[in-house]
What we know:
By secondary structure, the chain is mainly alpha-helical. The chain folds into two domains: 143 residues; 104 residues, Orthogonal Bundle (Transferase(Phosphotransferase), domain 1). A three-stranded antiparallel beta sheet has the order 1-3-2, with no helix packed on it. Strand 4 and strand 5 form a beta hairpin. Helix 2 packs antiparallel against helix 5, helix 5 packs across helix 9 and helix 9 runs antiparallel to helix 10. The radius of gyration is 23 Å and the shape is globular. The termini are far apart.
Amino acid sequence: xxxxxxxxxxPLVPEESRxxxxxxxxxxxxxxxxxxxxxLREADDEFIASVVAFCGRQxxxxxxxxxxxxxxxxxxxxxxRVVTVLLQxxxxxxxxxxxxxxxxxxxEEDTEDETQHVSRLTRWRRTLAEERARRMExxxxxxxxxxxxxxQEMGDETQQLQILTLMRHDVxxxxxxxxxxxxxxxxxxxxQMVRRSGxxxxxxxxxxxxxxxxxxxxxxxxxxxxxxxxxxxxSIWKTLRHPNxxxxxxxxxxxxxxxxHEAHTGTAIxxxxxxxxxxxxxxxxxGYVHGRGFAYQTLSMDTFVLLSSEQKLVVSGMGL
Length: 320
């Protein structure tokens, strides 16, 4: 095994993770599709392993929230996005990963001129499809028949609204990659939850997002405020586009509300040592906000943040 995976991926995951280089072969995980994709870690050719490790690092980051979760319904509500990530990873890895057992490759070739990466991709897709079918059969179809477990998994009213919103959003955005079996199970569980809870999910905002994986320089920040105030704040921030205003990417208003925005250091800004360029930039950001007809409820040093990607001060988009 190459050191590339140990360097790029291992620091991101706990040792028990299926992505850790200490494991060999597929690691079977409960309600976790993509165990076959995790075997990317076993590439040993230095160049190939370096490329594959970069791919594996991205996948591990994109699936981090999913794998940390423990609620079955929340995981089900993330199925489409997770499958999309895994299929993209399989497609990329199939072009560079070692071919594996030559006899198995030969048996799976449909024509003499079929390339190795196509047959490898076919095998990976087949295995992933088997994992997805087994996941429905062993985890979610039994949940449909177990009233007590379903009641427990639904949680309280806030959690129920969160799950219903996530389910609907996932189907709307990623429905094309779901199998008929997955779609049927999600639809039936959604129907049962609506009937039991009496909750109705309204129109999901276009800015709704559940993960930072769609943006390379993003972080998630939880926000403690009422839903009405939160929606009002987001409706303002999403309209602001200026190089000296922290970029807004998305937000989630159900469950524990959070915003996804441009990454910043999160450290306090020192009052000493600020350059004129810093002050001019902050003034430009504040001037832009005021020019749009908004004003900060409280203007303080907490309003200013230092971007992680570059040494530049910008103003926050919250608190308007």
